[in-house]
Amino acid sequence: xxxxxxxxxxxxxxxxxxxxxxxxxxxxxxxxxxxxxxxxxxxxxxxxxxxxxxxxxxxxxxxxxxxxxxxxxxxxxxxxxxxxxxxxxxxxxxxxxxxxxxxxxxxxxxxxxxxxxxxxxxx
Length: 123
Prior knowledge:
It contains 5 helices and no strands. By secondary structure, it is mostly helical. The protein has 2 domains: 27-92; 94-123. Helix 3 packs antiparallel against helix 4. The longest helix has 24 residues, at 41-64. The radius of gyration is 26 Å and the shape is elongated.
């Protein structure tokens, strides 16, 4: 009897989750799958190499002044950078201004802690 009660309760609680998963569009489901999968370091390295290659080709196209080639290489670079941002978040460029502000706030916090504890904080 307890088993049957637990089975019914589990089915009732799982039903909203099943309905939510079925209501996703194909694009949303693909985005969720891509985010859920973590990239292997070799894949991230390959993406970096490919992005570097296409940026080099874009510079070459600019030297040759070939507008269509410049646009195509720019499109390819932005596509690969989007994949890199989704699959390899550690490889995406970080905002240096934000890091500088964080470093300044840490320094200010240490100074305040030292001041208000009369140097007992040990910094």
